[in-house]
Amino acid sequence: MKINFHKILLGCIPIGLLPFLASAAAYKGLSGAGDTIKDGNAGNAPTQLPVLIGTFITGILSILGIILVVYIIQAGILYMTAAGDDTKVGKAKKMIQTAVIGAIIVVAAYSIASFVISTISYSTDIAAQQLKP
Question: Domain residue spans in the chain?
Answer without folding.
Answer: 49-133
